[in-house]
Amino acid sequence: MKLLTHNLLSSHVPGLRPGGGFPLQIQASEVRVRPVPFNGPFVARLVPRLRWAALLEAAESLGHPSSLPPEPSPDFEGDEEFLRKVHHILLEVEVLEGVLQCPDSGRRFPITKGIPNLLLSEEET
Amino acid sequence: LQRYLLLLAQEHLEFRLPEITSLLSLYGGQFSSKQEIRLNSPFWILSIPSEEMARSIMKRTVCAKSIFELWGHGSSAGELYASLRSYPVDKMLPYLQPNSTYKVHIHTFNKTLTQAQKIQKIDALEFLPFKGKVDLKNPEHIFWILEDYGMDPNSAPEEPLHLYFGRWVLILNLFQQIAHGQRELIESYSVKKRHFIGNTSMDACLSFIMANHGRVKPNDIVYDPFVGTGGLLISSAHFGAYVCGTDIDYNTIHGLGKASRKNQKWRGPDENIRANLRQYGLEKYYLDALVSDSSRPIWRKGMLFDAIITDPPYGVREATRRTGSPKETVKSAEKSAENHVFVSSDYHLSDIFFDLLKFAAEYLVMGGRLVYWLPVYRPEYSEEIVPHHPCLKLISNCEQMLSSHTSRRLITMEKAKEFKDQDQNSFLSDGQYMPYKGHNSFREKYFSGVTKRIAKEEKDNQK
């Protein structure tokens, strides 16, 4: 699981208060860094769609504190150094094994071989 | 605007117009005039602002084989020659230079000409100011005469109904890399060769058509909520989009379980969606695959995806499933229990599309497209049963027949209105939005022909 995906995911356990499922807390037992070719325009497109604080927090929790600023600067689109850092944290750091935990309900979703399993059981639905 | 002639492949006829329309809207250009597009004809005339745009279109299209800068056309040889005489000479000259090489090729639709006839027709163009040298092996410029003998190969007229002459748009000095369209690509992406095959891997052609109907562009994020083996993601990745998918089936996402290809027992450890993309050099576009139930979205609210391109289960080859009912238990692999869906309810076909449209309305960017297959029982089909949503505009609806009484329709919708929470279920009460519910028994209807035939055979055998 890449941190870009993590930034878009929310717990969907029934009965949560609005926004209570985001962000999922990552407890990783195995993390891998794999290079991905840098694509500045793609990263620049992503920045407005991201929840920035959650991204920084996730990177921190994986032991990859990014040297990213607390907020993207207004002219981030032209800042290649910034975009490369964002690229690295969004696309090159992957959780292979671990758990995603719903902040409100505590429900844990496993990540196996890089693939999160977000299915709820019959009792929960 | 320059006129170009598009030579189309005579396959997937219904899908061609939406594909070319989508590509024109992506790259620029338009149909030159409504009357000139005969939908079943392989010859379409377009007006495109630049050759660059014409090339971009040809790099994407599956439905067209070639494109030509149109120098003249007419419904008789005389008209063609007159048309050529009135084409500005200064536009021709750059391609007819004394130090250049060329050849003239003749292409006929629904007629075979003898070699003598071909030579005669080419010679008739001597009046054109060709100054270069003929080179049949490796010319710089290739001109085509195209003749249309009508739609019926069994009763072709003596003279062609329409004639065209144009310069073939190709990449100069690289004979293999002609801007021929995507036909070669189809061969390399053929399903048999693909690393990972599930029961319902899509025909490669149609998956590229779907990405084109979806107006997929480089740097888009494309999502497939019924991703299966990831076949549909490949075409979007090929066009430069970053792709992700979810599926309720743990085994398929992980590449486990019985292999669909004959003679293979088990999908190897690297037989999954990521490996699928890797074998085409598209791994950099892989975002993620996740196990989840598409009727219970796992995403935070917002306009996250540029396109949703998917083939939902029809309930025929792949079972339709959803978590949440005590009725059935799904047979699963040896993995621990918490990794699998425990049960599956009878997820009605119409609910799948209801949920899909609702999802697209909420999670697509404005102008983003939803492209999906809708299974249809033909004897009861009418346009009204195609699912609607107040935020989505219907762009196209193309039929592919599966059997005499079933088909599937490729539906393309575009997000035209922002999703507000009130939209969520208010239209439920309005019966007009889900008349597809009647199609719920699609599975029974699909099999009804089969069961009737078996019953008849048994009865005949007893006699």
Would you kindly provide a written description of the structure presented here, covering whatever features stand out?
The complex is a heterodimer of chains A (125) and B (463). With 125 residues, chain A is an alpha+beta fold. Chain A has a single domain, classed as N-terminal domain of TfIIb. Chain A is 29% helix and 20% strand. The model of chain A has no long low-confidence stretch (mean pLDDT 94). In chain B, the strands form three sheets. Chain B has an eight-stranded mixed beta sheet with strand order 2-3-1-4-8-7-5-6. A seven-stranded mixed beta sheet of chain B has the order 11-10-9-12-15-17-16. In chain B, strands 13-14 form a two-stranded antiparallel sheet. Chain B is built from 13 helices and 17 strands. Chain B has helices at 13-27, 51-60, 77-85, 89-92, 115-123, 183-188, 204-213, 231-238, 250-254, 273-278, 349-363, 423-426, 442-462; strands spanning 2-8, 30-31, 43-48, 64-74, 101-109, 133-134, 141-148, 162-168, 221-224, 242-247, 286-291, 305-310, 328-329, 343-344, 364-377, 392-401, 406-415. The termini of chain B are far apart. With 463 residues, chain B is an alpha/beta fold. Chain B has two domains: 2-168, VC0802-like (2-Layer Sandwich), CATH 3.30.2130; 183-323 and 343-445, Vaccinia Virus protein VP39 (Rossmann fold, 3-Layer(aba) Sandwich). The interface between A and B is medium-sized, with 32 and 35 residues. Chain A: It is found in: Cytoplasm, Perinuclear region; Nucleus, Nucleoplasm. Chain A: This is Multifunctional methyltransferase subunit TRM112-like protein. Chain A: GO terms for molecular function: protein heterodimerization activity. Chain A: Belongs to the TRM112 family. Chain A: One of its GO terms (biological process) is rRNA (guanine-N7)-methylation.
